Amino acid sequence: MPAIFRRGSEVYGRGECVCCMISALLLSRTNSIWRHGAEMRNTAFMRKALLLAAVVLFGASMGARWIAALHAQQPNPPTTPATMQADVTRLRDIVPPNSHPMVDVGYHATNLWFAAQRKNWPLAGYYLNETRNRMRWEVRLNPSPKDASGQPVDMKSTLDGIEAGSFDKVKQAIDKKDSAAFTVAYKHLLEDCYSCHKAAGRAYLRPMVPVTPGQAIINTDPGATWPQ
């Protein structure tokens, strides 16, 4: 009978190769160590994950409590007719006066002139549109100013006439890049603006062809190369 070698449930015969027996024993031991290490790694990972989750939940809970406490300390006052009136009064105090858009009109109309003098037609078109927009804003803010006799003036109808007349002529000159036509149309625009001033009882606001740019930081030279 051949000798029998046992290791646990594994049985080896005398005639088997000793090297095979040693390899089998080493492989079995290695698998056992690897399984044990994997279990340890999984356990460590789970511990870290649980710890991280606990930290996140704790932070969220504390943050929610802090926000709730902040709101409890600073409750919004109830809205009442008195508070609404106070808000309206404050808004009226901080709203710019009705004349504010006309300051912008002067600014853009001045730059319109110098842009056209430098034959920078795209820039001239931009300032023409800005001038028109500010005039419309003025009409929305103050649609019926009083004339010298105290009668209201229909500013929307007045502006509609200016836009259909001299404004359109200025735009045509810009589109055609016609400097001579622009000069004539621009002066007509100033004359129409002054007619509006007189109709509103402000004859002392007499416009003129500008002599200095309204904004020196804008380069009106169409050939400028800086900044890129």
Please give a structural write-up.
The protein is mainly alpha-helical. It has 2 domains: 4-72; 94-199, Up-down Bundle (Four Helix Bundle (Hemerythrin (Met), subunit A)). Helix content is 67%, strand content 4%. The protein is built from 6 helices and 2 strands; from the N terminus they run ββαααααα. A two-stranded antiparallel ribbon has the order 1-2. Strand 1 (4-7) and strand 2 (10-13) form a beta hairpin. Helix 3 (100-117) packs antiparallel against helix 4, helix 4 (121-141) runs antiparallel to helix 5 and helix 5 (155-176) runs antiparallel to helix 6 (179-199). The longest helix is centred in the first third of the chain and has 56 residues, at 18-73. The protein is flat and about 85 Å long.
Number of domains: 2
| Low-confidence sequence ranges | 1-27
Gross morphology is flat
Overall SS class: mainly alpha
Label the CATH architecture of the largest domain.
Up-down Bundle
Q: What is the topology, as strand order, of the major beta sheet?
A: 1-2
What is the CATH level 1 assignment of the largest domain?
Mainly Alpha
The pLDDT mean sits at 80
Q: Helix segment count?
A: 6
User: Could you give the count of β-strands?
Assistant: 2
Beta-strand residue fraction: under 5%
**Radius of gyration computed on alpha carbons:** 43 Å
The H/E string reads: EEHHHHHH
- In the CATH scheme, what's the topology name of the largest domain? Four Helix Bundle (Hemerythrin (Met), subunit A)
Q: In this structure, how is the largest beta sheet organized? A: 2 strands, antiparallel
Cα(first) to Cα(last) distance is 100 Å
**What is the name of the CATH superfamily of the largest domain?**
Oxygen-evolving enhancer protein 3 (PsbQ), four-helix up-down bundle
Helix content: 55-70%
